[in-house]
Design brief:
This protein is α/β, with parallel strands linked by helices and 268 residues long. The chain is built from 12 helices and 9 strands. The strands form 3 sheets. It has a 5-stranded parallel β-sheet. It binds zinc ion (ZN) (2 copies).
Length: 268
């Protein structure tokens, strides 16, 4: 069925909410159909100290405030810094799956507001020229029906009072990153994007994506923007962490309160 977006959004709201995908409980009080309020409260934010560039948690080193991680030291990315709202696990992972795979795109508001809150916390003094995002290829846009990072960026930009621009464009159709190894992901996204010098040169941009998996996409996207003359900082809804210890993160609620519970009814 290929309903216009607004009609589909309305239809989504009347779907039965179903059990919570994490605990099996009633998800009606939660932020999304399929995620209950109690489980949402368990979301975690990446712990400190972290690499000041990519944001990956690091073991604390005595007498040293913060130092870049080995990967950023060996091959510095084109973005200056990256901050992620949540650890990609538990409720944050479920929310992304509901949003992207089940196409519950009204959740973009909830995800976008989480990104905006994280941006304010990470760069309280910063001023930005625009929010840009990692674009989907035309084929993926057609099959999925929407552009996941684009909608999140739009909501985050609105919350931050900034313009949202599609200044980063897909150049070729890379395979889906899902299921590829770290090295495979890097090769797959190489030269995947393009940006016009006339539009981005001299701009300070906030690059938004839904999930940072290995960082390959963020690296390539920011490389493209930086080559065209922009200063790039990146923000994502969630980041994949591989060390068992890092997965525990820090309870997010202590830092940000409960936040908006329902993306659909969030005021503009
Ligand atoms: Zn639950
Ligand atoms: Zn790093």
């Amino acid at each position: 069925m290929n309903l216009p977006l607004s009609l589909r959004a309305a239809a989504e709201m009347f779907l039965p909410s179903g059990p919570c995908l994490l605990c099996g409980g009633d998800s009606r009080s939660g932020p999304a159909p399929g995620l209950c309020r109690a489980c949402w409260r368990l979301r975690r934010t990446p712990s400190e100290p972290a690499c000041p560039i990519c944001g990956v948690p690091l073991p604390p080193v005595e007498g040293q405030e913060s130092h870049p991680c080995g990967e950023c030291l060996a091959a510095p990315p084109a973005f200056h810094s990256h901050a992620s709202a949540y650890v990609y696990a538990g409720p944050a992972r479920i929310l992304v799956l509901l949003y992207k795979d089940q196409r519950r795109y009204p959740l973009a508001s909830l995800l976008g507001h989480a990104v905006a809150r994280r941006v304010r916390r990470a760069w309280p003094e910063a001023s930005w020229d625009a929010v840009v995002y990692v674009p989907s290829t035309l084929r993926r846009r057609l099959t999925r029906g929407f552009e996941p990072a684009g909608l999140i960026a739009m909501e985050a930009a609105r919350a931050l009072g900034l313009p949202c621009r599609r200044w980063l464009l897909p150049r070729k159709a890379p395979q889906a990153q899902k299921g590829l190894s770290r090295a495979g992901r890097r090769t797959n996204v190489r030269a995947a994007f393009t940006a016009r010098k006339e539009t981005v040169q001299g701009k300070r941009l906030l690059l938004v994506d839904d999930v940072r998996t290995t960082g390959a996409t963020l690296r390539e996207a920011s490389r493209t923007l930086a080559r065209a003359g922009a200063e790039v900082h990146a923000a994502t809804f969630a980041m994949v962490l591989t060390r068992e210890l890092d997965l525990m993160g820090t309870p997010a609620e202590a830092m940000e309160g409960e936040g908006p519970l329902c993306g659909v009814s969030e005021p503009a």
